[in-house]
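Summary for the funding panel

The consortium committed to producing paired sequence-structure records for every protein in the target list. Below we show the first two records in order, beginning with the earlier of the two.
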Amino acid sequence: MPEIPEMEIYKDYLNKWVKDKQISEVNVLRDKSVNLESRDFCYNIIGKRIKDITRRGKYIIFHLNDGHFLLTHMMLDGRLFLLPLDDQKKGQSIKELMSEVVNSEAADLRERFKELPGRPSVIFGLADDSVLFFCSLTLGYLYYLSQDELETKLGKLGSDPLDPKFNAQEFIRLLKGKRGMIKPWLMNPKNIAGVGNAYSNEALFGAGILPTRLISTISSDDGVRLYDSLVNILRDSIRLGGDMEEPFAPWDDFTGGYNPHFKVYDRSGKPCPVCQNVIEKSEVGGRNAFFCSLCQK
């Protein structure tokens, strides 16, 4: 599942390649991926301009020039893909090609464009002659929301660890008085927004804290170490390309560059990079936990 680094990379790409573009065509190929009737969804969005793209936790927010927003969450399998049409022309005008691509069936598109990272759920034709695909929104979604609806939807989220206003002291304050194990707490978006299984494992390893450790036993010093570990790992992952294997566009050779840098996540049975002890795997809070029982206490 994409977490903060992957969504931050999406946000940066979108601001570079999609910001200020007009949405000229829309096709909803999976009705359940949007929050309105498909016809109404398209009617509300066609002709609108994307003023800005921001991120909150694992959410991407498109700010439209009509004062509304498009809120998307990738969930487990969702992916974005930008296809420039200039290199796809074969005796067709860009306008004809745009209409053909946007209005094609999902299966036909996957056959035609092998690089698509999943089955298209929603497609935007952009006025700069490119197409933005929202793929595999089976659990994920794309919602057209008013300001009030957006605030209600995001209102239950906890602090984003990369928010400049969020610091170690605030992190420690959030931990005070809490019960249960640290890993499930860290992954709960009502506590910290945007941290999932991969980076919770890595952050706990970096802080030397077992995923099963009870929150009540975590000291202020432990909390500072965990906060620093989490923020540093998230920033490193963003800098190196995140964890997703699927590129954002045909020219994207940056996405996925953090994969070789995981120290414990998905490395059960392999040696710990610090002490060479075998990395273990267990289920904690319904999710897989990866850890070194010597380096983490």
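The next record, for a separate protein in the list, is shown here:
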Amino acid sequence: MRKVVFITIALGCALIAAESRYDITPTIGGVFPEESTKLKDQLSAGLRVGQYFDNNFITKIEGGVEFAATHYDVPQKKWQALLTRYFLHAIKEFEISENTYFYGLVGAGYENIRKKAGDIRFGNDDSPYVNYGIGLRYTVTDNLYLRTELRHAIKFTSHEGDNNIFATLGVSYVFGEEPKHPEVVVEPAEDNVTEDEVQTVATEEEAVTETVVDSDNDGVSDDNDLCPNTPAEFKVDDVGCITSVALKVNFATNEADIPDEFKSNIETVAKILNSETDYEVIIEGHTDSTGSKEFNIKLSEERAKSVAQELIRLGVDGSRITTEWFGEEKPVASNKTPEGRAENRRIEAIFVK
């Protein structure tokens, strides 16, 4: 039975490791058995392998093994016992902050008890068990996590349901990249056209291509462009006039001072406003989801007003500037990755004519 369980766990771990993103976690911890087992508290060491999944239902499936050595606490003699536990867990994570995650787990395992001396068992038989628990994971780097957890295990056959409490510390080494969604390619439908018709269409398209001129590269041809010479980074409407621009202004944590390297982006907006005096501008402040909502609202307000003051310093009439702030309410990328959070910490300039 022990060999079957061990082989099953080993194969499961091998299959897990074969996928694109997985982690390996060495652990240490303590085990606190129910008093009726006569087993003393134990120190344990183990190894786990986990496979990540890209869905909203489950974060990871994890398999592993733990070893512990302890004694039976009896008046006559202290008999030594060696314990091996095999297990499989399903884990669901919830983001608390940028680097910290809370998780819950449920799973099942098998406990093997081997006595080293004597013949006293106190009803402690090899047994399957179920367990559940909670934990915290802290991200040190993209490929290194620290984690701690607390689990409660209930055995099936020994003492009609003995209980064990596990407290565990681990270091997870992550391998592989974040799962990527496959691109969906839609093949164009085949029309029943002749070669002459295809050649005619191609010739017409070439003629159109040759006559379209877009001097400022804003996506609107010069024939239809009512606002020529707009910078390429600005969003324009269907007649080529500016509507908005996402300013690349990355602030330091909890700060609203504009870093020097981003002031040139604000100068570009100021030049447009000073040359196109019929435009007004709305400065919107946004943050990522780190921190409380109340704090993020206040922080986005301070940052929006900081950019507005910089525009005024560059010669823009303050009456043409309106500030608005939204905190974390309008993300443009996922807040689950450092890159996504960086995109969400932004200032947007909305132009009104």
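Regarding this second record: The chain is about 20% helix and 35% strand. The helical segments are 2-17, 195-211, 263-275, 293-313, 338-344.
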